[in-house]
Amino acid sequence: MVIPSWARLVSCAALFVCLLPAQDKIDFTKTIQPILEKSCYPCHGPKVQMGGLRLDSQAGASKEIHPGKSAESQLYKRIAGIGDEARMPMGGKPLDAAAVASIRAWIDQGAVWPEGAGVAAAEVKKHWAFIPPERPAIPKVGNPAWVRTPIDAFILARLDKEGLRPSPAADKVTLLRRLSLDLTGLPPSIAEVDAFLGDKSKDAWQRQVERLLASPHYGERWGRHWLDAARYADSDGFEKDKQRQVWFYRDWVINALNEDLPYDQFVIDQIAGDLLPNHTQAQLVATGFLRNSMINEEGGVDPEQFRMEAMFDRMDAIGKGILGVTIQCAQCHNHKFDPLKQEEYYRLFAFLNNSHEADVAVYTPAEEQKRAEIFRGIHEIEGELQHRNPDWRDRMAQWVAKVAHDQPNWVVVKPHVDDISTGGQKYLPMEDGSLLAAGYAPTKHCVQMTVKTDIQNITAFRLELLNDPNLPLGGPGRSIKGTGALTEFEVEAAPASDPKKVTKIKIAKATAGISLPERELDPIFHDKSNKRRVTGPIEYAIDGKEETAWGIDAGPGRRNVPRNAVFDAEAPISYPGGTILTFYLSQKHGGWNSDDNQNNNLGRMRLSLTTAPNAVADPVPARVRIILALPREQWSPAQEHAVFSYWRTTVPEWKDANARIEELWRRHPEGSSQLVLSERRKTRETHMLTRGDFLKPGKIVEPGVPAFLNPLPAGAPPNRLTFARWMVDRKAPTTARSMVNRIWQAYFGTGIVSTTENLGTQCEPPSHKELLDWLAVEFMDRGWSLKAIQRLIVNSATYRQSSKVSPELYEKDPFNTLLARGPRVRVEGEIVRDIALAASGLLNEHVGGPSVYPPAPDFLFQPPVSYGPKNWYTGKGADRYRRALYTFRYRSVPYPMLQNFDTPNGDASCVRRTRSNTPLQALTTLNEPLFLETARALAKKAITEGGNTEDQRITYAFRRCLSRKPTLAERAELQALLERQTQRFKEGKLNAAGMTGGEPDPELAGWTAVARVLLNLDETITKE
């Protein structure tokens, strides 16, 4: 038998204790204190008190020690590695057996701590970032004339202290280019530069600031930063890495930033928009922030395991993206450095753990308007019917009386699912007896379900297809439209006393609540068989053909509702000792590729039995049936209208009006889908997970917050809305600091705290702590306005400094921490591409909308580079030249150009990108197809719009890339390059058609060569 190492250590420690003479007392000063000094004080001593614990004072250590009871003392248990918590010292070498034995014996002997040993006071210093910020006084400086905003006073005070002076202001062209790139991510046009140079007014700069803050491209530029934190991508990740349609969330971020939605509301909408009273579609879409986690639908996965993985990811995103604290460590154990306990982690977790993994239909403003017109038209027709038939209420009442109790008694059965038959799909049992399909989604399978029943004389079987928030668009199917198809429904019966005596039940008749006309499958369900495969009426589910199926797709606006079908047996089924029923639900109408959302499966289903003769499917919609169960006098106007809207379809003489309404429904827009959160009605229990393992649930915890942060408001309900409001409470110590620090990072390349994702005890010390606190308070005092903070920054003298650096200044401050000069950094990967598009004139400036597919190598989306084949519909026309923000992002196959320039792929929250400089980047901007296209376009533009002389054209092309005019030396160098390259093309030494992309024009080819150089200058992709 293998004995665990910790058990061996405890045994050794016990042996040491036994060997100690009974009369020998452990001396704290000689034996215990040296052990603590060496192994414990680095984390729990005078300088650092991780977890709020000090072991260099008796008062501080006493809460971890029970004198006389070592087995109950946390100090002993943690150093001995006993229990579920991590062994101490964390990350260090474990104490040897003798040291552990000494501490144990000392505790059992009473833990005598001599007077004078250690420090008398047990002060635990609270980390500065965990104290709510207060507005510091603006410092006095030696040169107040330099100060434009209070920011400058803080910067200059530090420079004065270091004996440095700020740099002079940059020239106007450099400043405008810097401002344009910072606020919109696009370079200024030549016209904009000239207008600014010609504006001699005192407020010329401020006017440029306001113009750019008002630009719709502002939201695109700053939305990219937030989307990094939000793990935004267009695919699920993991092995399948299926496409997902979530661009509505990206649009919400862009629009919210353009509208300067206050940051506190920005956070609340994303954490709990669905819980706000009368929430809008936009607020529901905003909860996509938490749904951007990866989704695993590999074969054999346990859906609960990867729901937990998504939950951990959401916690990480909240920690990095909103709180600015690394909380992920506490998933498995108490945080090593910050005072966050594992139980507190799971109390935070509990706020998020009561949500469905929902997917809803969403509509653009144009589609919303169209929907409003359709519904208005329907209401007008229904209003006409009611006006022309004043007795409609009496007639409807007669109908209600007739159908209210016309359904037979159905008994729900809870069959066992044969795992071999599922094709890898999980069928999760629900409390109402239904089964929810989850996990891997095969495109073709026939699930087998078996149940024993004592019911005699069974006459019919009912199959209900139910909605569920966790299905696409709410179901009731698993296809991307929330629909499904039933290829065949078959039943076998056997006596319980002789299970092998199986009889196939002949289905005499099938009826359904909806029976649609025949239609061919949508292209996404093609299976390469070249067979004509169709869906249609319920009879297709009992015709014995694999090419036909019962379809339930009634079209947009009406497809995602419950359905039911009834299958009547030819003869009653009855066995004296009970019956074993086996159901076969064949679902063979999916496509060929399970990696590409081609399943057409049923989503949530429930089976029932009846003994009633001649049972038929209920034609009354489920939502109407619920209303009919209520007393008539309790109906609300909306409920009465819902009943009328169905009842009118049953009135023969209203055929023409119903046809007009059907025509309106056919105009309903398809809409799109969006992953969102929706709250569960029944609270889900949250357990602490041992070592973060979902298979090892421990203590049940209630929603709550860490003690080291601000408290929850008294009496607030324990839901996500309370949690969201707590994070942006005025007393929250880290939220405002975290956001302004990230804004600062975007402008200056490094945050005031360089570890932007971590303001905890292990963060880098802030370069200007008082400035960070001042900005945080100012941020909150200005209504959490992001644009207000950015105005302060870009209007400051600090921001407007030249980025030129002297050798002396570089030696003293190589990373520009003290900000004695302006920022000079390479722009982000997306902006590298956007600059080329803008300079060439190809940029499509349309804001928002679905992701697009710029040119990419075909092999990337085929095995073995990709696990399975992936769709990449290379854009044509204007879509080819959208901003890089809109490039479709597969997590498993990142877009090469963006990956080369350090853009994250959305696997995890990122609030601080790396910034590398590699030869591969230069090769990308020289040779990548889109960059070649931009060079050709820039060349044509220089020839046609740049002027009549080579000097004019060179200057024009140069300014489109760098904004400034070239120097004489630069112009001469470019002119020489143009002449050399053009001559080589004329002589046939170089292929002119290859350079221009088709035209054998030496002049255009020469200019294209020049354009490639300009687009690849360091200065072109650098913010000076």
Unreliable parts: 1-23
Query: Which range does the strand content fall in?
Result: 5-15%
Task: Please identify the structural class as seen in this structure.
Answer: alpha+beta
Shape type: globular
> Could you tell me the mean pLDDT?
93
Helix content: 25-40%
N-to-C CA distance: 67 Å
Which radius of gyration do the C-alpha atoms yield? 35 Å
For the report, how would you describe the main beta sheet? 7 strands, antiparallel
Tally of strands: 22
Number of helices: 35
Question: Summed up, what is this model?
Answer:
The protein is α+β, with helices and mostly antiparallel strands. It is built from 35 helices and 22 strands.
Write the layout of secondary structure elements.
Blueprint: H1 5-19, H2 28-39, H3 41-44, H4 58-61, H5 74-80, H6 97-108, H7 150-162, H8 172-183, H9 190-198, H10 204-213, H11 217-229, H12 247-258, H13 263-272, H14 281-286, H15 288-291, H16 303-323, H17 342-352, E1 355-362, H18 365-388, H19 392-403, E2 411-413, E3 416-417, E4 425-429, E5 435-439, E6 445-453, E7 458-465, E8 485-486, E9 488-495, E10 503-504, E11 507-512, E12 519-520, E13 534-536, E14 548-551, E15 563-573, E16 579-587, E17 604-610, H20 622-628, H21 637-647, H22 655-665, E18 672-679, E19 686-689, E20 697-701, H23 720-727, H24 735-748, H25 769-781, H26 786-794, H27 807-812, E21 825-826, H28 829-840, H29 896-900, H30 919-927, H31 929-945, H32 950-962, H33 968-986, H34 992-996, H35 1002-1015, E22 1022-1023
Parallel strand pairs: 13-14
Antiparallel strand pairs: 1-18, 2-17, 3-6, 4-5, 5-17, 6-16, 7-15, 7-17, 8-14, 9-10, 9-16, 11-15, 12-13, 19-20, 21-22
Helix pairs in contact: 1-6, 2-6, 8-10, 11-12, 13-23, 18-22, 20-21, 24-25, 24-26, 28-31, 30-31, 31-32, 31-35, 33-35
